[in-house]
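Problem 12. The chain below contains 285 residues. Write out its predicted structure in token notation.
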Amino acid sequence: MEFVIVTGMAGGGKTRALHALEDIDFYCVDNIPPKLIPVFYELCTQSKNDLQKVAVVTDSRGGKTFQELPADLDRMRSEGKDFKILFLDCDDNVLLRRYKETRRKHPLSEMNNDSLEQCVSMDRRILTPLRLQADYPVDTSRISPVQLKQQVTSLFLGEKVSSMVVQFTSFGFKFGLPREADLVFDVRCLPNPYYMDELRKHTGLEKCIRDYVMDCQETKDLLPHLENLISYLLPLYEKEGKRRLVVAIGCTGGKHRSVTIAEHLCAKYGGETRRTIVSHRDIEK
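Solution.
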């Protein structure tokens, strides 16, 4: 049975993540009390319906019982029960803006005299132990709902021999670093198609940009060094039991060079024994 615990910051995208899991045939339960998770796990393993894929959502509104959840999960692991934690994180400022735009009530508002800033701060403090246990931390600060669905779907759709998912993501430095990145590579040293009038409006997903970037001598010189380093690091991360490795490739705006290189690396390192996914954070900006 594949059992996924979805949690994270209120307003971080847990509901959208759950909908994405439903679309790939997970049996989903929203807002389950934390203390019921071990019990529900046992029920699912004993189900005559042979549940193969299950996802549950829980969050800090569980109060004291939620704060006991990390210890409960440690006990489950010690008993040999297999599960994964998907943690939806987000910048505080983005969370504040989302709540102000939607005018929704924060789940912890009654504990903080309706102070939204205090609610977000308290939520993050309570969730920190689970964030440290997360197998798949996903930062939703700068991605669209469609991009979130794509990431969640890619993480849990299908299995490969390697248990680690390698995500190659492109981004633009002028929009900030991806917070969830484990490795960051700067490809602003490559010739920039932005300064070619006939190429500026295209992206790294299109052949004209791909050919321009990949045919540059600078790219031909850089890629062997980059690939050798990644090839050396991946088995080390797998040996350490890492579930998800995020390799971020950055250029100035995140539309041309970084997109091409991320696509190239995803294709190179994917295969029968390793699952790779690719995402482009800033390609539409």
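Discussion. The chain has two domains: 2-156, 165-280. Students who got a different answer should revisit the alignment rule from Section 12.3.
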